[in-house]
Design brief:
mainly alpha, 2 helices
């Protein structure tokens, strides 16, 4: 086996490692994205529940609470 063959083999190994690392990074990013969306949905539901709870107390307060929750949700989603 010549030096050229050794370099080609090593280059092939490095390419395989790079492909595996990229696939792993994509998987992790996908998981984080899914987790973030789930968290956002949960926060939105909590906000809606709080708004409905407050609506039974006073209509103006409920509207303000709903707007606050929507603003929080929008800020989190933009981040």
């Amino acid at each position: 086996m010549g030096i050229k063959d050794q370099f080609q083999d090593k280059a092939g190994e490095l390419q395989d490692q790079a492909k595996k690392a990229m696939g792993s990074a994509k998987d992790k990013a996908g998981e984080r994205g899914s987790q973030g969306r789930d968290d956002m949905q949960e926060r939105g539901q909590q906000g809606q529940e709080e708004a409905s709870e407050r609506s039974s107390q006073a209509p103006d307060e409920a509207q303000r609470a709903a707007q606050e929750q929507q603003d929080k949700f929008n800020q989190d989603y933009d981040a």
